[in-house]
Structure formats: C-alpha cells, structure tokens
Design goal:
By secondary structure, the chain is an all-alpha fold. It has helices spanning 2-20, 56-59, 63-74, 77-92. The longest helix has 19 residues, at 2-20.
C-alpha cells in the first residue's frame, strides 16, 4: 500500500510537469529578412590577379621553404614522366 501511494505521489507531479512543458514555448515569429547590398557577390569588385597567375617563387618568400619546394619538384617522378611524355608528343608532331 505504501508503494502505491508513493507512486501516486511521484507520478502526479511528473505528469503535471510534463503537461505544463507543452505550453511553455512561445509563439514563433519569423524574423524579417534584410537584403543588403553587401550580401550580393556581383557587386564586389573583381581582382584581375588570380593565384594561378602568381609563381610559387613569388608566393613563398621563405628561403628554406623555397628550397624544400624546389627539391621536391626536382625529385618528383610524376613531373619527370609528364615532361618525358610532353617531349615524346612534341617529337611525334
């Protein structure tokens, strides 16, 4: 009998609390959308210089890093194979 009254004592506030939580939320109103000119990318001035136009020697000015890049380019087998294929294609032309 004690367990039954204990369950009622815990169950009634739990049910009331869970029902009350359904009414806590406020009414949602969507914020007004502001369309300003600075959100448009077509109004941004375009730069004529791209990263593809800049040499890596101009981009990386650190001499140690430039030395590592140069060594990596000289020891890169894929670049060597590509250069040999370019020379072979030029020989066929």
């Amino acid at each position: 009998m004690k367990k039954n009254s204990l369950y009622k004592f815990i169950l009634v506030p739990a049910v009331l609390l869970s029902l009350q939580s359904c009414f806590v939320a406020k009414e949602y109103s969507r914020p007004e959308v502001v369309e300003a000119e600075y959100f448009r990318t077509d109004l941004i001035p375009q730069d004529s210089l791209t990263l593809a136009d800049v040499s890596w020697r101009d981009l990386f000015t650190d001499p140690i890093l430039a030395g590592h890049i140069e060594e990596g380019l000289q020891n890169n087998l894929d670049i060597r194979v590509a250069l040999q294929q370019i020379e072979a294609a030029e020989a066929y032309m």
